[in-house]
Amino acid sequence: MNIESVEKVYSNYSGVYDLIFGKLFESGRERGIELLELTEDDNILEVGVGTGLSLPFYPRNCRIMGVDLSGKMLEEAEKKVRENRFNNVKLIKMDATKMEFEDNSFDSIMAAYFISTVPEPVKVVHELKRVCRKGGRIVFLNHFMSRNRFIAGFEKVISPLCCRIGFRTDLNLYELLDETALKINTEEKANLLNYWKIVQCINNK
Amino acid sequence: MPVTKELIEILACPKCKGDVHINEKGDGLVCDKCKLMYPIKDDIPVMLIDEAVKLN
Question: Which of A8, A61, A189, B35 has its CA 20 to 30 A from that of A33?
Answer without folding.
Answer: A8
